[in-house]
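Thread: Newbie trying to understand structure tokens

Hi all, I'm a second-year student working on a class project, and my supervisor (Dr. K.) asked me to get a predicted structure for one chain before our next meeting. I've only ever worked with sequences, so writing a 3D structure as a token string is new to me. If someone could post the tokens and maybe explain what I'm looking at, I'd be very grateful. Here's the chain:
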Amino acid sequence: MPRLKTVLDPQSPTLTATGLLFMRVMAALLLLFIHGLPKLLNWSGELQTIEDPFGLGAPLTLGLAVFAEVVCPLLLLLGIAARLACLPVLAVLLVALAVVHPDWTLEQGQFAWLLVVLYGGLALTGPGAYSVSGMFWRNRLA
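---
Reply by user tm_fold:
Sure, no problem. This is what the structure looks like when written as tokens:
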């Protein structure tokens, strides 16, 4: 009966922490494997094709994209500075949607919008209890 009570409790700390862990891991892995690692592993090819909407130059633009799509998801995956790690990702996604691909329909941009929802939600909630930050603060407050 205690497990049923936990499942039915809308404010269950265990389920909230588990849900945030699931969201964090999936958001990080999706961005890392679909966008980040392909850019990093094909650096020279990406330099030839990357859009440079602000005229920063292809190397800097690609470097910023790789930071947002590789380093930040790894931080999020571990739950280290997770709220801050979401911000560069959100910036890259919103620039892609609003500046680089403004002609995309909702259907064409649905993956980017899904990531905006996930990373925006995690920027607001934080990583949850099952994270390096969560363990750190739990030990500091104990």
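A couple of things are worth pointing out once you decode it. The CA atoms of residues 72 and 142 lie 29 Å apart. The mean pLDDT is 92. Feel free to ask follow-ups in this thread.
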